[in-house]
């Protein structure tokens, strides 16, 4: 049943060859950018919960692995990282389909269906009968859990065209995305004393609540909303002339499908902005998972901490990460004040997003050297633990700054851009922890951690280079140009939706 409000949300535009373009009217309430505050807030909150669950699950078994291996009679220490590594391998596979698919069939179908499988796979982990089945279920969790990590950035880009509003919700998104992996080991460390299966049961409860909320989420991708309206008009009128701008711009379906599947990889390989930011974000992300292997080596080996106490040493990292969100919002406020005064530097999108990553890079590097050279028996344990404050602040601000910059630059292709980043960082996140034991055994705590510090030092110039060359690169990017250009048509506005077409004789 159609209401007058719905009719006034769409307009029909006559094109050559008697095609009818379906588009939003100016200020249309059906356009996600024009939704009321309550509707936007609900979608933002539910999407955040989905991202949090995905992040928590990624590192969830970290402190429960010894108990799991003992229960399944696994004695090869090299397999300790597998429950996390196979999850992150799933993070590589999932974005190749989920993120570009969300730019074709919509955000909601991708999120709801993948999260349904994610919940079921988490349930399967809690009742896994043996070690191989647990690894298979973890891989499924990772593949399905990749969807919120990449699609939600596109959801926010759909609803917030204003850079200030988008920047703030993206700051919350980045904070939750990176805080989840920190919360996971804390949950497993505190619950493993009641049995390792309780680790997954707790995660299942959290995921189940988020799943219920996702069922009531609204579709946010404007081209899909228009596509649904055009389909309704074709069905009700019996006329196949109704089309959308997206349908006119796409070629054959075969070409479209090929483009959908390969878009994240194409952007990663041929977009310098995507490649450089993905490298830096991947390093920061993989260092978090490296710490999940390094902290037990450091604090159990040097300070004789038990599993529960070791899990609490991650809290400063979480506090530092949360502080990064506050700093980002404060910087955004200063930017808006300068913009209102007409200050020249506010005209640069690079200066809007990248300065924070210029500051956070050195913070990340300093924290690694701090941890490596203060973790000795002669120095109180609180000193190396507090390095987590600077570490959390550094890697979180790198996330917020660079991913928000990418989202602003690529807008409707932001899901694929974020997917490219997720693919690369998941590969490194799966590989880095494998090096922890050999590296610390060969070099000791100080030099092993310093090696990572020198690697992070090499990435510090990336945001500075983008500040200088970013405008030049963006102007030559086909994806960046495509968000501004579209086909133009000799058109005549026909009417608001509700008028029959073709007209009656």
From TrEMBL:
It comes from the Eukaryota. Its main location: membrane. The keyword Transmembrane applies. It is found in: Cell membrane. Keywords: Membrane, Transmembrane, Transmembrane helix. PANTHER family: MAJOR FACILITATOR SUPERFAMILY (PTHR23502), MAJOR FACILITATOR SUPERFAMILY (MFS) PROFILE DOMAIN-CONTAINING PROTEIN (PTHR23502:SF74). This is Major facilitator superfamily domain-containing protein. It comes from Aspergillus coremiiformis. The lineage of its organism: Eukaryota, Fungi, Dikarya, Ascomycota, Pezizomycotina.
């Amino acid at each position: 049943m159609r209401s007058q409000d719905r009719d006034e949300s769409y307009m029909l535009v006559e094109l050559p060859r008697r095609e009818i373009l379906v588009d939003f009217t100016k200020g249309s309430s059906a356009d996600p950018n024009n939704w009321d505050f309550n509707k936007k807030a609900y979608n933002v909150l539910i999407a955040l919960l989905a991202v949090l669950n995905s992040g928590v699950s990624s590192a969830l078994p970290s402190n429960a692995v010894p108990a799991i291996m003992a229960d399944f009679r696994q004695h090869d220490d090299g397999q300790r990282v597998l429950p996390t590594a196979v999850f992150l391998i799933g993070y590589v596979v999932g974005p190749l389909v989920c993120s570009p698919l969300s730019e074709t069939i919509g955000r909601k179908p991708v999120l709801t269906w993948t999260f349904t499988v994610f919940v079921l796979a988490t349930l399967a982990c809690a009742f896994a009968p043996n070690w191989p089945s647990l690894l298979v279920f973890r891989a499924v969790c990772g593949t399905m859990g990749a969807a919120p990590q990449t699609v939600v950035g596109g959801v926010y880009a759909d609803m917030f065209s204003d850079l200030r509003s988008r920047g703030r919700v993206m700051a919350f998104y980045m904070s939750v995305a990176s805080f989840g992996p920190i919360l996971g080991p804390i949950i497993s460390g505190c619950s493993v004393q009641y049995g390792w299966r309780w680790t997954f049961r707790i995660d299942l409860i959290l995921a189940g609540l988020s799943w219920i909320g996702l069922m009531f989420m609204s579709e946010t991708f404007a081209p899909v909303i228009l596509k649904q309206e055009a389909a309704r008009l074709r069905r009700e009128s019996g006329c196949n002339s109704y089309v959308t701008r997206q349908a006119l711009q796409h070629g054959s379906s075969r070409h479209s499908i090929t483009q959908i599947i390969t878009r994240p990889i194409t952007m990663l390989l041929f977009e310098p902005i995507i490649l450089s930011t993905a490298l830096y974000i991947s390093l920061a992300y993989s260092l978090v998972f490296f710490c999940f292997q390094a902290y037990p080596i450091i604090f159990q080996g040097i300070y004789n901490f038990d599993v529960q106490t070791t899990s609490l040493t991650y809290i400063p990292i979480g506090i530092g990460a949360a502080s990064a969100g506050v700093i980002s919002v404060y910087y955004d406020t200063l930017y808006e004040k300068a913009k209102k005064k007409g200050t020249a530097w506010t005209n640069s999108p690079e200066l809007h997003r990248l300065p924070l990553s210029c500051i956070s890079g050195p913070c990340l590097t300093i924290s690694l050297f701090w941890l490596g050279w203060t973790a000795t028996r002669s120095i109180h344990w609180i000193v190396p633990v507090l390095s987590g404050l600077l570490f959390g602040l550094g890697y979180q601000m790198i996330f917020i700054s660079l991913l928000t910059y990418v989202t602003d630059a690529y807008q409707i292709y932001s899901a694929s851009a974020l997917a490219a980043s997720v693919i690369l960082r998941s590969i490194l996140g799966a590989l880095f922890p494998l090096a922890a034991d050999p590296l610390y055994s060969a070099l000791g705590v100080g030099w092993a951690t310093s090696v990572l510090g020198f690697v992070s030092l090499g990435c510090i110039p990336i945001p500075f280079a983008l500040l200088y060359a970013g405008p030049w690169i963006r102007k030559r990017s086909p994806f960046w140009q495509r968000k501004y250009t579209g086909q133009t048509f000799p058109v005549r506005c026909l009417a608001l939706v509700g008028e029959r077409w073709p007209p009656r004789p």
